[in-house]
Design goal:
There is one protein chain. The chain is 34% helix and 25% strand. With 323 residues, the chain is of the alpha/beta class. Strands 8-9-10-7-11-12-13-14 form an eight-stranded mixed beta sheet, covered by helices on one side. Strand 11 and strand 12 form a beta hairpin. Helix 4 runs parallel beside helix 5 and helix 5 runs antiparallel to helix 9. The protein is globular.
Amino acid sequence: MKVGILSTGNIAGVMAVTLNGMKEAELYAVASRNIEKAQAFAGKFGASRAYGSYEELAADEQVDLVYVATPMSEHYENVNMLLRHGRNVLCEKSFALNEKQAAEMFALAKEKKLLLTEAIWVRYMPMWKTLREVLESGVIGKPMTVTANLCYLIDQVPRLMSLELGGGALLDVGVYVMNFASLVFGDEIEKITSTAVMTDTGVDAQNSITLTYPGGEMAVLNSSLRVLSDRKGIIYGTKGYVIVENINNFESITVYNENREVKAVYEQPGQITGYEYEVLACKAAIEEGLLECPEMPHKETLEIMRQMDAVRKQWGMRYPGEE
């Protein structure tokens, strides 16, 4: 499968390394708005084609899949342009700025009969399935409470501090804690309560979100651009609990019983970078003629976007162009 990469930033580099380590896919092309940057990236990672505009990559009929690694504020425009040119798309998280944009992107993909999926990498990983199986086995009884945090020292990254570029902790790292809660409890939420500390530039520096579910379950979620956290996700059940090390790329899953004794440990299988699983999922979907990946259906992306919209509404945080 020939893959094109839109943008030449850090995560684009991670994807390039991933593709170079795979036999099922190849790094075929890269595009930047600056031809020198595209050529430098192609030279470093061995891409066959380097384009000085996104439209040139979109027009290349040899490209089977385009990975979009631009800032979140650009996803809507970039993805729609690619779809109109007939390209299948794997778009980085957060998928869009809001649910409205995401719904329009999916509608266009459906109209064009093309694959479009969100690159929320943990959803595609084997450990995501392992955690589901652990919970479904009933080993910790009925899960009732979840805590999850994802916090990094990244408030010096200009993009993340810019309202115009879709900045803030929520859409960049909070999306992972929201997805973690979704894995455990689903998306039927009775109440969302949230608070945030805002920066001078108008984005959330850190936030806390509590989700309450119809069955009395609760998820308490934290994300930040200003501190370093342990990145743990903990699921508390009626017969024990589970600790997940690093909800951004599950390193291990440890199961404890009612006496707080370790009953089982599941370790992360070897990986190139972890990005390979979303690429493989896209390849399988394209070969089967699917318009979405079963690992991350469109409705799941829309649900998470809807939840983040509701959270931002409580803070009064709007991106440019939003009503």
